[in-house]
């Protein structure tokens, strides 16, 4: 993320973002000014902006909506049972590997809103509840992450 974008988000009061897609299950504080070359790795300043995890594999659009770009079709129209199995197994993996993971599913009303997909969404919620999932809004999850003593240290100028 560029320093200009960071400044704009912070100026307008954004507490979190989900555009960087650098981790599937763990929130983290966004940095600016990283230097990454084959010879040098220097981490930039940590900001107060929190990156919430997001992944294309947890988004309904690539699974269900066909797209044709330059004659290269993206399949879409997957069976809901297959998509449900993927979504639940991603949760199982996260729960097994992380104590405090956050899983962000992205459902677009015009995609998930079809009858058979709504039935899948209901089954997903039931299955996740049976596996011990709790549900919350991203702003609440970001605030909980920010309150954690391990994640409080940030650069004063951001």
Provide a descriptive summary of the structure in words.
There is one protein chain. A hairpin with a 2-residue loop joins strand 6 (67-69) and strand 7 (72-74). The strands form three sheets. A three-stranded mixed sheet has the order 1-5-2, with helices on both faces. It is built from six helices and seven strands; from the N terminus they run αβββββαββαααα. The protein has a single domain, classed as TIM Barrel (Alpha-Beta Barrel), CATH 3.20.20. By secondary structure, the protein is of the alpha+beta class. Helix 3 runs parallel beside helix 5 (115-130).
Brief sketch in words of this structure:
This protein is α+β, with helices and mostly antiparallel strands and 158 residues long. Helix content is 39%, strand content 15%. Helix 3 (80-97) packs parallel to helix 5.
Q: How many angstroms does the end-to-end distance come to? A: 14 Å
Q: By helix and strand content, what is the structural category? A: alpha+beta
Radius of gyration from the alpha-carbon trace, in angstroms: 18 Å
Largest sheet: number of strands, sense, barrel closure: 3 strands, mixed
Low-confidence stretches: none
Strand order, biggest sheet?
Answer: 1-5-2
Nearest-integer average pLDDT: 90
Number of domains: 1
Overall morphology: globular
Beta strands, count: 7
Number of helices: 6
CATH topology: TIM Barrel
Secondary-structure element series: HEEEEEHEEHHHH
CATH architecture group name: Alpha-Beta Barrel
CATH homologous superfamily grouping: Glycoside hydrolase/deacetylase
- What share of the residues lie within helices? 25-40%
Any idea of the CATH class? Answer: Alpha Beta
Percentage of residues in strands: 15-25%
